[in-house]
Amino acid sequence: MNIAVVTGASSGIGKEFVFRADKFEGIDQIWVIARRKERLTELAQSCTRQIVPVALDLAADGSVEKYEALLAAEKPCIRLLINAAGCGYFGPFSECDIKAQENCLKLNTIALVAMCRASLPYMEAGCSIINVGSNSAWQPVPYQSVYGASKAAVLSFSRAIGRELKPKGIHVMCVCPGWIKTEFQAVAEHDRYIKYVDRWYGPDEVADQAMKDLAAKKTVSILGAPVRRQVKLVKHLPVDMVMNIWCKQQGIE
Ligand SMILES: NC(=O)c1ccc[n+]([C@@H]2O[C@H](COP(=O)([O-])OP(=O)(O)OC[C@H]3O[C@@H](n4cnc5c(N)ncnc54)[C@H](OP(=O)(O)O)[C@@H]3O)[C@@H](O)[C@H]2O)c1
Questions:
Q1: pLDDT at 221 over 90
Q2: Is 53's C-beta closer than 6 angstroms to any atom of ligand 1?
Q3: pLDDT tens digits, one per residue of 169-197
Q4: pLDDT at position 253, please?
Q5: How far is residue 21's CA from residue 244's CA, in Å, rounded to a whole number?
Q6: Ligand 1 center to residue 102 CA distance, Å?
Q7: By residue range, what is the domain housing residue 205?
């Protein structure tokens, strides 16, 4: 049995990826993972392939082990693993709720790494992993410090395992979106802390670009010429200057 696995499937970018997986050749089932089970179940109404809801809190201990147990029972071939679950909590680090930040690190980084490790025994040549990073992966981001660091880890990890898995024919791509209108902003308290956004994109646009880039075997997928330009610039400017520009744009010290 050939499956796609999508985390963060109940909303935003992950949900859009479920619809792309539904059109992906040779998939029998889509295993959809998030905490809100009713939203996962509802996906069946909009998909042609069989939807298998797997309600898990990926930041909780033992969750990825439950996923591993399902894999061991079903022994599928994972044609496509998409790690889109993620969250961020913006604001000054000195005032943050450290438990919430630890939760963000667990979900964005530790769970993503564990999902890749658990899935690899069920992947073969021609299979692919898409990890959702962020535009925040390319630079340290004051007032999003933990989120940015978690996404820098996702980018670095994805590139490194991509190189390791290349001889096995398993492709790894990191998607690094700019600002995308989803439920993410409410969780992150975006409107309280972010004053300047150059351009909003939709989660459907991110998923479309990612599937195009996956077909072209890219290792990084970036939607939008302005975002691609910014990434290029950030690589060449001194890091202090980049952070100062960001702070100035956001009207913070
Ligand atoms: N929106 C942006 O501007 C933006 C920009 C760059 C990168 N990203 C990244 O894109 C990815 C998707 O975010 P989004 O914008 O689509 O946000 P979203 O609409 O809030 O979706 C987040 C998804 O993650 C799931 N999730 C959250 N906590 C979880 C947990 N503990 N265990 C399992 N699943 C959990 C949520 O489902 P439940 O609540 O049902 O668990 C939801 O399906 C994230 O990795 C995010 O960092 C977003």
A1: yes
A2: no
A3: 999 999 999 999 999 999 999 999 999 99
A4: 83
A5: 40
A6: 16
A7: 2-249
Q: How far apart are CA 119 and CA 189, in angstroms?
A: 33
In this structure, what CATH number is given to the domain that contains residue 187? 3.40.50.720
Ligand 1 pocket, residue 14 CB under 6 Å: yes
Number of domains forming the structure of the chain: 1
3-state secondary structure the chain: CEEEEEECCCCHHHHHHHHHHHHCCCCCEEEEEECCHHHHHHHHHHCCCEEEEEECCCCCCCHHHHHHHHHHHHCCEEEEEEECCCCCCCCCHHHCCHHHHHHHHHHHHHHHHHHHHHHHHHCCCCCEEEEECCHHHHCCCCCCHHHHHHHHHHHHHHHHHHHHHHHHCCEEEEECCCEECCCHHHHHCHHHHCCCCCCEECHHHHHHHHHHHHHCCCCEECCCHHHHHHHHHHHHCCHHHHHHHHHHHCCCC
Atom of ligand 1 nearest to the CA of 187: 20
